[in-house]
Amino acid sequence: MKILQNENLKLTLLTVLYLAILFTLFWIYGGGGVESNFIYNEF
Q1: What are residue 33's phi and psi, to 5 degrees?
Q2: What's the rounded Cα separation, in Å, for the pair 13 and 4?
Q3: Is the CB of residue 11 less than 8 Å from the CB of residue 18?
Q4: Cβ contacts of residue 29 below 8 Å, gap of 6+?
Q5: Which residues fall within 8 angstroms of residue 35, CB to CB, at 6 or more apart?
Q6: Each residue of 1-43: pLDDT tens digit?
Q7: For the whole model, what pTM was predicted?
Q8: What residue numbers bound the domain in which 6 lies?
Q9: How far apart are CA 15 and CA 23, in angstroms?
Q10: pLDDT value at position 25?
Q11: What is the pLDDT of residue 18?
């Protein structure tokens, strides 16, 4: 049961991290400026 709880915790943390990255990307795109141009040129 302890292992299962650890796996659920890892999954939750990964989900939160993923959402945080998405939010950061949307914030950079929405904010405009140098960061937005850099990401646009990179990808």
Answers
A1: 90, -160
A2: 14
A3: no
A4: 36, 39
A5: 28
A6: 576 778 889 999 999 999 999 988 888 777 655 555 666 666 5
A7: 0.52
A8: 2-42
A9: 12
A10: 85
A11: 95
**Total tally of structural domains belonging to the chain:** 1
Instruction: Determine the residue type at 43.
Output: F
- Please tell me the distance from the alpha carbon of residue 10 to that of residue 31, in angstroms, as a whole number: 31
Give 23-29 contacts, CB < 8 A, sequence gap 24+: none
Which two tokens mark 23?
């939010």
H or E element at residue 8: helix 2-31
Whole-number Å distance between alpha carbons of 4 and 40: 40
- Identify residue 6 by its one-letter amino acid code: N
- The number of residues making up the chain comes to 43
